[in-house]
């Protein structure tokens, strides 16, 4: 019976005393005169499996010399292990090499820095750290789909290639089939009639506007796909290509939006805690000691909800010297966000009702009866301890006249947005949504502090390997 | 109690005689002297809900005039319906307009052609057809994740931006931040030092090679993401942006690969049949009369497996005039594929062991002892009735010397593929994988014949709306 290590470990009691076949790679290997031990991994499980072999095997002397990362077929019996780090081990009756690894394998047994491992992107998924990170990434992705599926949300594939400019959400990459050594021109301008789409096309920075189309048809939808920013910022938190989840809900005000976002975050964390206990223990031991406590704090507490104006009042009264001075109207900086969530509330906090002037055109204007000189919009950001902002969302402006007036104020080209205004002309409804950066979530759940280490193939300024 | 139509219909018996609140859009509306009927939809369910209102409502005369697609809040009681098309209806006690739709709404009650609806991409998800197609799309996507999650496969996000050329898998889009009106040049060549990634970068045509990296770490992985082809082909089956699923399995030969592919296809179809019965009935009634029979045929039969050489023999003996003459060595055309699967086997057929010369460099060479003059590779295509090829896969060449020799033969630049060869140097194992075009699956399951109608926002030559 051929099994993966995951299958064996999952119900190991069932297999005790049974003969099985396992295939995998040598993680470590040691031997003495007449007995040898191989730690075998196949990557299906965070744990590896101990293989014990004796000199009754005819190729005992060869097996001792098999190099790290060589692939093997093991035939043997499952037995309870006397060791305290494992429940079972395999007593091998036959060990057959599949392919021996060259001895200059770049990941030898010693521990490597994440910086070194980034230079070995095609090997690093084989390490404990990246095996754990990328499995958690996979589980978290599944949790997101499961959450929305259970709620009856429709998964909408919004386009990656877009001809709309997303109104300043970020710098965009252009996509073209023109020959860059000599792009065709007419009157000094690029002649897009020779380009694939007959017009300039870019990579999406957000699927929100298209998700609104889908929400006005299905009520509840979400996107989950790659998103791009051509920002020249070489930080630990920015990548040029990242994945984003954008739910969009019709007949939903900002309060409903926060309810779903809170439930959503808790669901993902609980799912990973339940389904990756070994990986989570590893992170809390080797990556971030406070991790499990922080995550349990998140899932066990009701998130706080305050307005931006209340947040400013709190910050002004804070006995802390901020690098960026606090004044009503400013965009909150990470230091402000972290102070509020870490020092004041010590749990996740929704901040709502931001100044209109610092938020996007599509956000719904509030009444602001009490402070008409300080116009706000129905925006919400979710701040979490250790990171700061992890979700940004808003109720969308669904009133045609208000939206049109605002877009004119902002000198936007209304001609390009007729389809978006059409959604307000024909069956408009209050609707809300938010964006959740998938890598931010993975960093938060694993404690890994650099976005390059939660993306299997990170793309950043000057770096696009493979 | 505010409910979606999906929630009400799912357990309607529970709600009979209860007062509920429903929000949605007017699909149709008619009234006589003292009674009116509104067919209300919120898109959460294929079925709409009948709202009955009488002249006891003070705004009876206004309600009669509400335009199609106006959004409403309905308060009322759930009652069993005397009509035979529905189990329940709502007797309204209060009807409040949210936003009235302008009366020139482009989708009036009459039936529209799919061609017309393509010009109304921001409204077409509101029609029965597209509501059904995009919900099935969402369900099929979930089925795919669920299938692989249950099997312990890791979902790997392979990169969209790539600096490798994918060796002729298809024409590629270039991605750049250079100013196309005047790209910087050095010695007549584009100077990529000024581009975002310091080198030419394109949109991926396949995640396979990177998936191989992940498979050699996790054993079983899959990708599911957007893929791009800049091919100037304006057909009903080609889009420039489409989604693809690419499983990759270590310690797996071509037979295992076919077993998984067969199970996978059946799983998706069964999941959709179980979870979208109304939608499937609609398709089989209005889109493709033979649909359900064809799908049941697929899930209930073991797929046939023949070699390419056997396929050629069958085609040569066929009493059919093919447009493309049949000879050992040719690439099978759709007419050949459909003949085999529709006329001969009348069910899905795997064709294996194609001529080496017509397949990609990475496919594993066969022994070919019986016919050394006809070298073949361990490739497999799955052909299905009504469509032809729906899956293409292969065992990968894992022998370093064989792969290197072949790449040299093909005059490939080995320098660019050192990482790929490294996978064979350090712990190589037999491995296999396949690619499944997601839109092809959706077309197959829904009977919809144009790829533009299974993509919410299709991108094709000269067309990139939004």
UniProtKB/TrEMBL annotation, chains A, B:
The protein's enzyme class: ligase
EC number: 6.1.1.22
Keyword Transmembrane: no
UniProt catalytic activity: tRNA(Asn) + L-asparagine + ATP = L-asparaginyl-tRNA(Asn) + AMP + diphosphate + H(+)
Keyword vocabulary terms for this entry: Aminoacyl-tRNA synthetase, ATP-binding, Cytoplasm, Ligase, Nucleotide-binding, Protein biosynthesis
A GO molecular-function annotation: asparagine-tRNA ligase activity
Residue stretches making up the Aminoacyl-transfer RNA synthetases class-II family profile domain: 134-456
Localization, UniProt: Cytoplasm
Gene3D superfamilies: Bira Bifunctional Protein, Domain 2, Nucleic acid-binding proteins
Pfam family, one: tRNA-synt_2
Entry-linked SUPFAM superfamilies: Class II aaRS and biotin synthetases, Nucleic acid-binding proteins
Keyword Amino-acid biosynthesis on entry: no
Complexes and interactors: Homodimer.
Family: Belongs to the class-II aminoacyl-tRNA synthetase family.
NCBIfam families documented for this protein: asnS, PRK03932.1
Name used for this protein in its record: Asparagine--tRNA ligase
Record organism: Peptoniphilus equinus
Primary gene name: asnS
């Amino acid at each position: 019976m051929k099994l993966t290590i995951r299958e064996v470990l999952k119900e190991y009691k069932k297999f005790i005393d049974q003969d099985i076949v396992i295939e995998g790679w040598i993680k470590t290997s040691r031997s003495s005169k007449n007995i040898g031990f191989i730690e075998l991994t196949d990557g299906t499980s965070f744990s590896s499996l101990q293989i014990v072999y004796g000199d009754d095997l005819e190729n005992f002397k060869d097996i001792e010399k098999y190099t790290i990362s060589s692939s093997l077929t093991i035939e043997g019996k499952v037995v309870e292990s006397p060791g305290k780090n494992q429940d079972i081990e395999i007593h091998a009756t036959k060990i057959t090499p599949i392919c021996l690894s060259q001895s200059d394998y770049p990941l030898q047994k010693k521990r490597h820095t994440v910086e070194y491992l980034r230079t070995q992107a095609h090997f690093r998924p084989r390490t404990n750290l990246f095996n754990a990170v990328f499995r958690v990434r996979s589980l978290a992705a599944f949790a997101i789909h499961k959450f929305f599926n259970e709620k009856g949300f429709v998964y909408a594939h919004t386009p990656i290639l877009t001809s709309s400019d997303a109104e300043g959400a970020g710098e965009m990459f252009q996509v073209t089939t023109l020959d860059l050594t000599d792009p065709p021109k007419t009157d000094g301008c690029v002649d897009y009639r020779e380009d694939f789409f007959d017009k300039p096309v870019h990579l999406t920075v957000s699927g929100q506007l298209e998700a609104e189309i889908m929400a006005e048809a299905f009520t509840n939808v979400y996107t989950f796909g790659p998103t791009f920013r051509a920002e020249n910022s070489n930080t630990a938190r920015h990548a040029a290509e990242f994945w984003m989840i954008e739910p969009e809900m019709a007949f939903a005000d900002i309060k409903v939006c926060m309810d779903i976002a809170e439930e959503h975050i808790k669901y993902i964390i609980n799912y990973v805690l339940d389904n990756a206990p070994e990986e989570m223990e590893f992170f809390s031991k080797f990556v971030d000691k406070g991790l499990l406590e922080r995550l349990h704090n998140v899932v066990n507490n009701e998130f706080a909800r305050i307005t931006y104006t209340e947040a400013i009042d709190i910050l002004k009264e804070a006995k802390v010297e901020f690098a960026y001075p606090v004044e009503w109207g400013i965009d909150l900086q990470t230091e402000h966000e972290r102070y509020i969530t870490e020092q004041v509330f010590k749990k996740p906090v929704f901040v709502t009702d931001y100044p209109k002037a610092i938020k996007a055109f599509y956000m719904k204007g509030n009444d602001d009866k009490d402070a008409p000189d300080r116009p706000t919009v129905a925006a919400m950001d979710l701040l979490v301890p250790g990171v700061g902002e992890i979700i940004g969302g808003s109720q969308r402006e669904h009133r045609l006249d208000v939206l049109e007036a605002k877009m004119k104020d902002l000198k936007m080209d209304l001609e390009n947005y007729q389809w978006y205004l059409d959604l307000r002309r024909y069956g408009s409804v209050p609707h809300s949504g938010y964006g959740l950066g998938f890598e931010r979530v993975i960093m938060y759940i694993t404690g890994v502090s650099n976005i390059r280490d939660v993306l299997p193939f990170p793309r950043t300024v000057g770096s696009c390997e493979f």
